[in-house]
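Field: sequence (string)
Field: structure_tokens (string)

Example rows 1 and 2, in order.
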Amino acid sequence: MQFLRSFGYSFAVFALVAAFSAVSFAQDRDRVVERTTPASPTQNPAVKKRPPLTNKLIVQSESPIKKTASSRPVGAPAATTSSAKKSTTYMAATTRSMMMDSIRAKLGIRYRYGSSGPNTYDCSGFVWKVFNEAGIGMTRTSARSFWNTFEPVYGDARYEFGTLVFFNKLGHVGIVAGPEGFYHASSSKGITYSKFAGYWEKRIVGFRRVPIQQPVWNPEDLDQ
């Protein structure tokens, strides 16, 4: 009987110690807490991501279009430049060449009133001689008579080579060289070239043309 009491008392003590150890172990063990984070919008396929806000204005430019048609109205004439000029038809190249040869041969010869060469010339005598040596027949007379005999000329044609130009109330005449000047028998310089600009342009009376019959080209001339 005494043995049973001792065994029961020992079993109770053992049970009490075991229970106390279990409680202590549970208190000393690290607590593990599972933390859950909310799913981000990108992880949830049902949530669409909104674009970030910005103050920058994006403008889409139009694509370049190549022009394939002219802006000029249909049927309108093409533009022409002011530099385009009609070629001279006053005299043939052969006639011009013969006149220039005559003029060059006389440059520097002294002036003498009423003279027609070959050592001295006045203005009308010089003009008559040049045309005569180029094969153009005309009467030797005064500058005023040339003015009254030949037809007037206007516009750009006035400044074509070979046109006659008159000055000083029809008291002087020369041969136009081009838009810039003319050849004449000057009382101070003899046969010379002078520019229109300056002294002479203020004294111009007008222009006349000597009628010239253009030579007819004959193919048989090549065989001679």
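Row 2 begins here:
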Amino acid sequence: AAAPPTERLLYDLVTAYTRRVPWESASRIVRRVTRHQTSGCPQWPHDFWAGAQLYGTGGTCYESNYAFFTLLLALGYEGYLTINDMHASVGCHTAIVVRLGGQKWLVDVGMPLYEPVPFDAAGGMATGQFHTVTVRPIGEDIYEIERDRHPRPYCFTLHDCPVSAARYRDATINDYAEHGLFLDRLIVTKVVGGQISRFDSGNPDGPCITTFYNGKRTDAPLPADPTGADTAVAAHFGIDAGVLRDARNALSAR
């Protein structure tokens, strides 16, 4: 329910989001192949939330964080969007910085990080159900974000610098161009049944749903036929099977 901005509500919103809205590339792949211009591809917040409610879809970092940031603003939170790096990949990841009660909070539903992380110039840390996330300063307004209980602890390099809406939207459009990310694989990730679940069409061991808990990985094989796999993935993640089918067909046609 809508309420005045508090730390507790911010935690609850991030927790609810990661259990209701998936990180997924399916709707992104479909939008890219059904639109002639990259400017028409992004799911801006209105479309994003409509898709989440109607089809159980979500998005990747640019659109997910933009939609969540818009929700936070509507609820009275203050903050800004950032565009960040992953090692040598510049500008490939986004995140939100929320200002609340004189404290900065790193919020990222586009990786996702599963809890807000308080931080300042000296860094910060937050321990949640799945990871302890550390914000470590490496320069002026530059931080490395890391998580434990994960085979790759490094998450991204945060540039704590506000990005204008116009620049953010341009970057979102450009992420659908030739070198845009996650247009060549079908991936769905969401917290299901208290565990992080993931499907990745590029899994070298064949189609399966992978769950992660306390650093342990479990693979549940899926039916070998694509239709059966789509149905199983749709049921597990609560996403429309037609969206998954259209994305798979788009990838097969390449």
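free_text_note (row 2): The mean pLDDT is 96.
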